[in-house]
Specification:
The complex is a heterodimer of chains A (256) and B (250). Chain A is α/β, with parallel strands linked by helices. Chain A is built from 8 helices and 9 strands. The radius of gyration of chain A is 18 Å and the shape is globular. Chain B has 10 helices and no strands. Classes of the chains: A alpha/beta (256), B mainly alpha (250). At the A-B interface, strand 5 and helix 2 of A face helix 7 and helix 8 of B.
Chain lengths: 256, 250
């Protein structure tokens, strides 16, 4: 997926600003006016120190929070129904009383998809994320990585226009995290999904992304956007390439 | 011996031991039977009550008041708990009154209920309902508030309707707190049913207790105490069983 400038924009964030009022009446600017275009089919990472507003920006994209000023301009109109946006949290946030397949088909049940079709689609996506043999397991019976796979399957099962991920692998150990990164790239390529990925890991951002937006704190703003010109598809070899390490040091410098 | 077998054996040992202590105490101290009858006399009284069939109308009456009051009180309490959880403004307006009635000792209100609703079934039901209502309401309210913030976000992202939120997320999350309330309510309901029969009416286990104590029929009194305790335990354990079924995912 080589990036070409000017490709189709899915949503453009225009001068979005978010001011929180604290209990004591003070105003805290979580986001200074931020502008950014998100392209169809791209993998875009937001990195930055804690408190830089990356999660706030993601919640605004998800419609969970509203900007104090500015607007989102969606190609083809603002999301109206629940199946426009997929969201993956840092924790899996599965219903603990429901089996893996019931968790994954939850969105389809909410949208009123016919039962048989919902089951088929949930089974297919579970096979894609490698949970084909665990459809009837309860969340507590799965490892952290497997739970997160189920959460990703739940966000992808209805083919949302955009998948928003808020540090989805932040709670996993490094080995699992590496494996999940490769799985995520494979799944994204298979489905052609647009992904906005919040992380504080520079390695993860550089390895996964077509573009990386670097954010800085107080007030949160985007200080740079980079096209990551590494070989596609990404793989272990990329991690050994000098270009990858150049990106790591540049991003690390910009985060200081 | 497996775990279940051991549990049953230990339970039997404990019951037999208690009856033996009781019997020994009566035999050694020579306490008069109208103060503490021997266990076999109480046992014979229970057998007589069931064999002659004279217990059934009383048992049915108490059970009826208990179950009807419990059902009405829990449904009403659960409904109001859900409404309050969904409408924080309503909670702020009616909350203080609810708090007052919740802490007011309902037992002390019992004479008032008799004044208002008469000596019959109505005031008995009102007392049981008033005892059941608050613990269930508080349980439902706490349960609905216990939904994790991220699950609420998920419901928001999927744009669930209020009914879908309730059915798919909030009610299942509320089960533990709701059942904690229901179990407290079950104990309260048993107390309420017996107490209401002490004060008014002419049937029920509570009525038989008053009758037995005023006529010095102590074996009958003991039989009633055992039966009401058993009633409370059965109700509580049935709830615990349903709870275990519903929370088997834990």
């Amino acid at each position: 997926m080589g990036q070409t400038p000017g490709r189709d924009t899915l949503v453009s964030i225009e001068n979005v600003e978010r001011v929180f009022v604290t209990n004591t009446g003070d105003e805290v600017r979580a986001l200074a006016p931020v502008s950014l275009a998100i392209h169809k089919g791209e993998f875009l990472s937001l990195i930055g120190p804690s408190g830089c507003g990356k999660s706030t920006l993601l919640r605004i994209l998800a419609g969970l929070d509203t900007p104090t000023a500015g607007r989102l301009d969606w190609a083809g109109g603002a999301p109206k129904s629940g199946n426009d946006i997929g969201f993956v949290f840092q924790d899996a946030v599965l219903l603990p009383w429901a089996s893996v397949i019931d968790n994954v088909r939850l969105p389809l049940d909410v949208f009123g998809t016919p039962k048989g079709e919902a089951t088929q689609r949930a089974e297919a996506i579970l096979r894609l994320v490698g949970l084909g043999d665990f459809t009837s397991a309860l969340p507590k019976e799965l490892s952290g990585g497997m739970r997160q796979r189920a959460a990703i399957a739940r966000a992808l099962v209805y083919n949302p226009r955009i998948v928003l991920m808020d540090e989805p692998f932040g709670a996993l150990d490094l080995l699992t995290r590496d494996r999940m990164n490769d799985e995520l790239l494979r799944i994204q390529q298979e489905l052609g999904a647009t992904i906005v990925f919040v992380t504080h890991s520079i390695d993860e951002a550089a390895y996964l992304s077509d573009r990386v937006a670097v954010m800085s704190a107080r007030p949160g703003r985007i200080s740079a956007v980079h096209e990551i010109d590494l070989d596609q598809p990404r793989g272990e070899a990329v991690k050994d390439s000098p270009r990858f390490h150049e990106w790591l040091s540049q991003l690390r410098r910009e985060l200081r | 011996m497996n775990a279940t077998g051991l549990r049953i054996t230990l339970g039997l040992v404990s019951v037999v031991g208690l009856v033996a202590l009781w019997w020994l105490y009566v035999a050694l101290t020579g306490v008069p039977p109208y103060v503490l009858p021997r266990p076999e006399v109480v046992g014979a009284e229970i057998v007589r009550l069931f064999a002659s069939g004279s217990i059934w109308p009383h048992l049915a009456h108490t059970l009826g008041v208990l179950l009807a009051g419990f059902a009405i009180g829990s449904v009403a309490g659960a409904l109001l708990g859900c409404v309050l959880a969904k409408a924080p403004r309503v909670e702020r307006v009616v909350g203080p009154y609810l708090f007052f009635f919740q802490t007011a000792p309902k037992i002390a209100l019992a004479p008032l209920f008799i004044l208002w609703f008469g000596l019959g079934l109505a005031s008995q039901l009102v007392l049981v309902v008033s005892l059941v209502f608050f613990p269930v309401m508080v349980g439902a309210l706490l349960g609905m508030h216990s939904v994790p913030a991220r699950l609420r976000d998920l419901a928001g992202i999927l744009k669930m309707t209020p009914i879908q939120r309730l059915r798919l997320v909030e009610l299942p999350s509320a089960v533990p707190e709701l059942f904690a309330g229901l179990k407290v309510a079950a104990v309260q309901a048993t107390i309420g049913a017996i107490l209401s029969e002490w004060m008014s009416g002419d049937s029920g286990l509570g009525y038989l207790m008053v009758f037995a104590s005023t006529t010095y029929r102590t074996p009958l009194l003991f039989a009633m105490v055992l039966l009401t305790a058993l009633l409370g335990i059965v109700l509580y354990q049935s709830l615990a069983l349903i709870e275990r079924r519903l929370l088997s995912w834990r």
